[in-house]
Amino acid sequence: MSDTPDLGPVPVRVGVEVALVRRLVGEQFPQWADLPVEPVAKGGWDNWTFHLGTELLVRLPSASEYAQAVEKEHRWLPVLAARLPLPIPVPLGKGRPTAEYPHPWSIYQWLDGETATIDRILDPRRFAGDLAGFLAALRSVDASDGPQPGIHNWYRGGTLRTYDEVVQRALAALDGAVDVSSARKVWAAALDARWDGVDRWFHGDVAEGNLLLKNGRLAAVIDFGTCGVGDPSCDLAVAWTLLTADARQLFRDRLAVDQASWARGRGWALWKALATCLYTFEDPADAADFAAAKRVVDEILAFS
Questions:
Q1: Are 88 and 160 within one domain?
Q2: How many structural domains are present in the chain?
Q3: Is the pLDDT of residue 5 over 50?
Q4: pLDDT for 3 beyond 60
Q5: Is the separation of the CB atoms in 235 and 175 below 8 Å?
Q6: How many CA atoms lie within 13 Å of 300's alpha carbon, on the beta-carbon side?
Q7: Structural domain harbouring 202
C-alpha cells in the first residue's frame, strides 16, 4: 500500500473514524451491521482501511483522486481474479457517497497473511519465481478496454517522463547524499528505453506492503488501486526493492524481460526511491525512511 502520494500536490484527504464506518455499513449493508469495526494497522495512504469482523475489509478512499479507482476495481478485479494463480481482493459490495463521506467505497473479503519483508521470505528464489509467475499470468489477461494510465493510477503504465520533474528536483536536492552522477545515467537510460506499444495488464505497485506471505511463501497480492493496462515495466521495480541479486536474475528470466523493459523498470524503482529520499532527507523524524530509500537507490545503482 502506498505510504505517500506519488505525484504533484498532496491530495486533500478526508478523515474517517470508526464511528463513521459503523454508520455507513449499518445504513447501506445492514446484513453486516452487527460486525465489529477496527482500523487496520498500517492501512496505507490512498485508502482508510478497517476490519469488518474477522473476514471482511472496508476500504474508503482518502481523497477524490484515489476514489477514481473504485469503479475500476469493481469492474475489473473479478475478471482478473478468475485468471490469476494467487488470491487477489474481490469486492463484495460498493458503498455510496453520503453527506458524511463524499466518495464511493468498498467492502472486500479479508485476505490473511504477513507483509512480505525480506526477513520473512523463506526462499528468495522461490518467492521471485512465484511472483514472476503471477505477473506473467496478469500480463496474459486480455487488455482490451482495460483502464489506460491516468489520475486513477498516477499514470502507471505510461511514460516515465511524467516523473522527470520530480526526479530532477530530487537529484538537485540530494547531491552529496546519493551518487547523483550515476543516478542521472540510470534515469537517462530509462527514459531512452523504448516500449513496444503493446498494452498489457499491470498491478502498478508491486511492493512489500501489497504482497502477502504464508509460511514464508507468496500467498496473495493485494491493493490493485494503481492497476491498469499499458507498459507493464512499472511492476519490475520490485526487483530492486525486495529481491536479492540472485533472485532478481531469476525473476527477470522467468518473465523473459528484454533489456529495454528492464531499463524502464529500473527507472521506476529509481524514481520512487529518489522521491522518498527527497521527501524525507531533511527531517530527523524521517531518518529511518530516508535510510531505507537510500539503500534502495544504492542497490539500483550497484546492480543492473
A1: no
A2: 2
A3: no
A4: no
A5: no
A6: 34
A7: 114-302
Pairing of β 228-230 and β 56-61: unpaired
Q: Is the pTM of this model over 0.70?
A: yes
Residue at grid coordinates 507468496: 218
Mutual orientation of helices 259-280 and 164-173 as an angle, nearest 10°? 50
Q: Three cell numbers at 171?
A: 537529484
Average pLDDT, the chain: 95
198 and 134 in a common domain:
yes
Closest CA to 1 of 82, 56, 62: 62
Assign residue 267 the CATH number of its domain. 3.90.1200.10
CATH assignment of the domain containing 91 = 3.30.200.20
- Four-CA torsion 175, 177, 180, 181, nearest 10 degrees: 100
